[in-house]
TrEMBL record:
This is CPBP family intramembrane metalloprotease. The chain crosses the membrane at residues 15-32. It comes from the Bacteria. Residues 12-50 form the CAAX prenyl protease 2/Lysostaphin resistance protein A-like domain. The keyword Signal does not apply. One of its GO terms (biological process) is CAAX-box protein maturation. One of its GO terms (molecular function) is endopeptidase activity. Keywords: Hydrolase, Membrane, Metalloprotease, Protease, Transmembrane, Transmembrane helix.
Length: 54
């Protein structure tokens, strides 16, 4: 029983890592290409909203 809880928690951690890592890469790319912080902030708000909804 405890083994299942460990695996479930581990899967959730990897999912959050994946979302954080790729969200950061996309946000950084937007900042690099636009030379402005606004698109990166808008993307960050949109990304976090979508992660919360899904």
């Amino acid at each position: 029983m405890n083994y299942n809880l460990i695996l479930e928690s581990s899967n959730q951690d990897w999912h959050l890592f994946y979302l954080t890592f790729f969200g950061g890469i996309i946000s950084g790319f937007l900042y690099f290409k636009s030379k402005s912080i606004e698109p990166s902030i808008v993307f960050h708000v949109f990304w976090n909203t979508m992660v919360y909804i899904v």
